Amino acid sequence: SGAGNGNGGMLGSCSCKIGPSILNADLSNLASEARRLMDCGADYLHLDVMDGHFVPNMTFGHPVVKSLRHHSDAFFDMHMMVNRPEQWIEGMRDAGANLFTFHIEATDDVKGCIRKVKEAGMQVGVGLKPKTPVDVVFPYVEDVDMVLVMTVEPGFGGQKFMADMMPKVQALRAKYKSLDIEVDGGVGPATIDLAAEAGANMIVSGTAVVRSDNPRDVITQLRGKVDEAIQKANLER
Questions:
Q1: H-helix segments, the chain
Q2: Average pLDDT, the chain
Q3: Which of 114, 128, 139, 236 has the fewest CB atoms found within 10 Å of its own CB?
Q4: pTM for this structure?
């Protein structure tokens, strides 16, 4: 992976990984927030990049990621909620991103974008918005490191978890036993059972972890549920 990146090879085995979304943290104090969340047992950090076009909101771009990289060796999962994601690949690689997750709806050349991300030395994920059917991603699964199933409409924090997205996760898990499947949006102690039982193993949690009085407890709780579901699935095989 690119210069100065954290633990490069995190993905690949279907184990539980918890990634707090730093968009819910104190953005004026990102370095210490990143440290606090990793110290509380997070496996990676989920960084939401929004361009004001693919989604109505804007967040941050390469400069913020690059300056955060100077203070953190965490694994950076970049959730690129941007149009024309190809244009962001080089900048994110140079900023120290590990995993570049773009939306299948954001480009006409999904295969080309996957190839460019890999050529840049990053791992690659593809994301699905709630209205996108899951079979759209099947042709690309063999080429990617992770599939992200959005459990809210991307672009806004604090929405309710969409349980009706779980059949997508189930369909992916049924076909691909060792694929990293990430869920993002409204995931916390109240909704983790649904996500874990459906087969998600990469858990993005925003408000539930970041705004908690005891993030370590919440991360431990989420991990326990996912580990339990993975063990159960392994026994049933």
A1: 30-39, 62-69, 89-95, 110-119, 166-175, 192-198, 207-210, 215-236
A2: 93
A3: 236
A4: 0.94
